[in-house]
Amino acid sequence: MVFSPEGFDEFFRGAFARLVLFLIKIGASREEAEDSAQEAMTKAYESWHAIQHPEAWVRVVAERAYVAAAARARAAPVKMMAGSWTGDATYTDLDLAVFGEEQRRVLDLFRRLPHEQRRVLAWYYDGFAIAEIATRIDGPEATVRSHLRHARQRLQRELKVGNAVADAATAGEGTN
Fold it and tell me: What average pLDDT score do residues 65-86 get?
């Protein structure tokens, strides 16, 4: 079956990079984010005629794809051990190399948050209202607000600690 949905190409070109960044904000590596975003976009293409809110729809589908892939990845070492296979379990986050220093710092701060706070914050900073976030993640608005509040408080604490460390390092340089 051949699909040719009107408007999908333009949507894909405008939304793919933002979708990848959304997934990175919730904890995916660049490779995981690109794979999950591609999977979501493929499903969006196939269902384009039935999708009413494509920006939200692809985020929900991509997040589910990422969570499922992450669960499979966590299970892989156990399966390898059971099958007497070994592998290199080292992980380097080379995906952040393409971002500027400030973007890397923001993403590092995001990754320090608990998953639910990180998830809600990513939706929020992608321009979704609290009510829509609650609908998309299937949770109460009060919980979304709570996650946002706690995430902001934690980020403020992390920034204060980071700034204090930077100030101490700068002060220490002047004494040499």
Answer: 69
The alpha-carbon radius of gyration of the chain (Å, integer) is: 19
Query: Which among 96, 77, 79, 97 has a CA at the least distance from the CA of 88?
Result: 77
Q: What is the pLDDT of residue 94?
A: 47
Q: By the 8 A CB rule, do 148 and 124 touch?
A: yes
The pTM (predicted TM-score) of the whole model is: 0.67
- Domain map of the chain by residue range? 1-93, 112-176
More confident residue, 167 or 86: 167
pLDDT in the model for residue 95: 54
Given a contact cutoff of 8 angstroms between Cβ atoms, the answer to whether 36 and 73 are in contact is no
Residue 86: phi and psi, rounded to 5, are: -125, 160
Question: What is the three-state SS of 89-132?
Answer: CCCCCHHHHHCCHHHHHHHHHHHCCCHHHHHHHHHHHCCCCHHH
What mean pLDDT comes out for the span 61-79?
81
CATH of 112-176, one of 2.170.130.10, 3.30.420.40, 2.60.40.10, 1.10.10.10: 1.10.10.10
